[in-house]
Specification:
34% of the residues lie in helices and 29% in strands. It is α+β, with helices and mostly antiparallel strands.
Length: 197
Amino acid sequence: MGARTSTVVRNTKETDIELTINLDGKGNGSIDTGIGFFNHMLESFTRHGLFDLNISAKGDLIVDCHHTIEDVGIVLGQAIKEALGDKKSIKRYGSIILPMDEALVLCAIDLSGRPYFVFDAEFNTPTVGYFDTQMVKEFFYAVSYSAGMNLHIKLLSQPSNDHHTIEAMFKAFAKALDEASMKDSRIKDILSTKGSL
């Protein structure tokens, strides 16, 4: 069985992005988005999901971080969708309640092919480093709709440290996606009564 990989390139007047993902990786990668905290979050996603992920992103950061973060989300979602292929034998569902110090985050995923996104969290500060906290929701929205996944992220506690909250979200997303995309030898076809996802 070959590794499930995909490479997606997106070039616009606002961003220039090349991304490669291996869903069957070892947690290695190279991330360069020009936004230090965003790099850190994507590195956490890579490591804790055991994906191999390479991202080179250049965006109009002189405007703000919005276009770069949103477009990386779009490209990551497209790459996940392509790497999953026909979704034969995957578990389809994944979920976790993940702690990080005082932060506690629930993340649940259904790789149904039908995009839907629910985000229940608030932040205490407008930025972490050069990363706008309101872009957390925009990033995961872009991923979920590009990948065609049902994604729920809920903050179960209200910690004072937004760094911890956001990092818990990225790690929880990684663990839930790893579980949902995992192949199960008991599933011989597509896990759906319809026969397709």
